[in-house]
Design goal:
alpha+beta; Creatine Amidinohydrolase; 429 residues; 2 domains; Creatine Amidinohydrolase, Chain A, domain 1
C-alpha cells in the first residue's frame, strides 16, 4: 500500500503569482492584443462584486471603484491604473502598472478613463462585456457610466474583450506549466492512494470521495471546482457533473474518479483515473472490458498526436470522433476537451463541436497556440441493459497536455493500465 507519508504538498511557501502576473502582462498580453486586434483594454474593479479578471490585472484589492487601461502600441503594452487616493499607494506598491493616477474625487473615475482613452486615440477599445462569464465582468452601470463620458465616435470603437481574454489567459508561461505538472502529480497520487483503500462489497463511491477530500485537507490544497462534486467518484451509471453516491463498489465495476486541485489559489488540475474491480480469484479483466479501456486510451493518444499550433479545436475533436466510429463506440454528447489552468474549465479553444450536426462555431474554431494547456478525454461508450431500462456507460480517459512548438506533450505520464482492485477471496461452503 502506498504510504500516505510519501505525499507532501510542494506548494507551501511564497506564492509565485505576483512575479508571474507581471511577466504575463509584459510578455503575453502584447501578443494577445495583437492577435485580437485590440489597441486599448479597460478593466473596472470594485469591492464585493469584482471583475473575474481582477486578480490577473492587479485589481483584486480594490475597495473604491478603480479602473485600468492597457494600451498596445508598437509591440509593447503599457498600463495606467486610476485609483481612489487612499488606495493609490497600495496599487503602486504591487508594481503591476506602469503608472498609477491618484483620484482626489473618485466620482470622476469614468471621466478620467474617457479622457485618457481619447488621448491615446485607440481604434478598438475592449471592454469586459461578453457572453462568457470570465470576460463579462463589466456591469451595466459601469459600462453606462463610461459611455456617458465618451464621445459618439469613441463609443463606436467599443468592442467585447472576449477574444483578447481568450488569447491571453489560454497561453501559460513555462513556469506556470511546471506548477501544473507538479499539481498533476499530486492529483493522481491522491487518486491512486484512494483506490488502495477500496474493499469491494463494502466501500461506497462516497467513501472514496471523502477519503480524497480528507487527504486534501491534510495536505492543504484547494478544490479545482465545487467541493460537493470534487472528486466525482462513479462506479455505476454516468451522472455527469455530480457528487459521489452511496453505491457500493462491486466486482466487475469500472471506477471513474474525476478530480482536480487548485494550488496557490490560482492554478487548477483536472484528471481522471480508472480502476477495475476484479472478481474473486480473477487475475485480469474480461477481454471485452479490457478492450473498452484500450480503445479509450488509444483515442486519447491519437488526439495528442493531432494537437499542434495552428490547428482548430474542432479538427482535434474530429480525430476522436473518427476513432470512436472505427471502434464501434456509441457517440457521446460532450466535446473531447477544454482549456484548463486558472479554472478547471478555462478559456481558449474548445476541443469539440463534432458531436453536433451543425457546422463548428465559437471556441471550436479557435486555433491552438504554444503554451495552451488542455484537459481532454479519450472516449469509449456502450449500451447497457439493466432490468427494463436501457442506458449507456462510458470510459473517458482524461489527462492534461500542453501545446508545444512542434506538437503537444502530456504534463505527467498518462495512465497506461487500469488500476486493478482484487475482490476478497471467497470459499464455497
Amino acid at each position: 500500500m502506498l504510504s500516505i507519508l510519501t505525499l507532501v504538498n510542494p506548494f507551501i511557501g511564497p506564492n509565485p503569482w505576483p512575479v508571474i502576473r507581471r511577466k504575463r502582462i509584459k510578455k503575453l498580453l502584447p501578443q494577445a492584443m495583437r492577435l485580437s486586434g485590440i489597441d486599448a483594454w479597460v478593466v473596472v474593479c470594485r469591492e464585493n462584486a469584482n471583475d473575474p479578471l481582477a486578480i490577473h490585472v492587479g485589481g483584486e484589492n480594490a475597495g473604491g471603484t478603480m479602473g485600468i487601461v492597457f494600451h498596445y502600441f508598437d509591440g509593447v503594452v503599457s498600463s495606467t491604473g486610476f485609483s481612489p487616493w487612499g488606495e493609490a499607494q497600495g496599487l503602486r506598491d504591487m508594481k503591476v502598472h506602469d503608472t498609477v493616477v491618484s483620484l482626489d474625487q473618485p466620482a470622476k473615475l469614468y471621466s478620467e478613463l474617457a479622457k485618457h482613452l481619447m488621448s491615446l486615440n485607440p481604434k478598438r477599445i475592449a471592454l469586459n462585456s461578453s457572453g462568457k462569464g470570465i470576460a463579462d465582468g463589466l456591469s451595466w452601470s459601469q459600462r453606462n457610466a463610461l459611455e456617458k463620458e465618451l464621445s459618439p465616435e469613441y463609443r463606436s470603437r467599443l468592442v467585447s474583450a472576449e477574444d483578447l481574454v481568450s488569447e491571453w489567459l489560454s497561453v501559460k508561461l513555462p513556469e506556470e506549466v511546471e506548477i501544473m505538472r507538479k499539481a498533476g502529480e499530486l492529483t493522481v497520487q491522491l487518486q491512486k492512494e484512494a483506490y488502495m483503500q477500496v474493499v469491494p462489497g463494502e466501500t461506497r463511491d462516497i467513501d472514496v470521495a471523502r477519503y480524497i477530500q480528507r487527504r486534501m485537507e491534510e495536505l492543504g490544497v484547494d478544490h479545482a471546482w465545487a467541493p460537493d462534486q470534487n472528486p466525482n467518484v462513479n462506479s455505476g451509471y454516468p451522472k455527469g457533473h455530480a457528487g459521489a453516491s452511496e453505491k457500493v463498489i462491486e466486482a466487475g465495476d469500472f471506477i471513474q474518479t474525476d478530480f482536480g486541485i487548485k494550488v496557490y489559489g490560482i492554478w487548477c488540475t483536472d484528471y481522471q483515473r480508472f480502476a477495475y474491480v476484479l472478481a474473486s480469484g480473477e487475475k485480469e479483466p474480461p477481454v471485452e472490458d479490457l478492450q473498452k479501456w484500450e480503445y479509450a486510451r488509444e483515442g486519447h493518444r491519437r488526439v495528442l498526436a493531432a494537437m499542434k499550433p495552428g490547428i482548430r479545436g474542432y479538427d482535434v475533436d474530429h480525430v476522436q470522433r473518427e476513432w470512436m466510429k472505427e471502434t464501434g463506440s456509441k457517440p457521446v454528447m460532450w466535446g473531447t476537451g477544454h482549456p484548463v489552468g486558472y479554472w478547471a474549465h478555462d478559456v481558449g479553444p474548445y476541443l469539440g463541436g463534432g458531436q453536433r450536426p451543425d457546422p463548428p462555431s465559437g471556441d471550436a474554431l479557435r486555433l491552438l497556440r504554444v503554451g495552451q494547456t488542455f484537459a481532454y478525454d479519450g472516449f469509449f461508450c456502450w449500451d447497457v441493459v439493466s432490468g427494463d431500462e436501457s442506458t449507456r456507460k462510458f470510459i473517458s480517459v482524461e489527462e492534461m497536455a500542453v501545446v508545444t512548438e512542434d506538437g503537444a506533450e502530456y504534463l505527467i505520464p498518462p495512465q497506461e493500465e487500469l488500476i486493478l482492485i482484487q475482490s476478497p477471496v471467497t470459499t464455497d461452503s
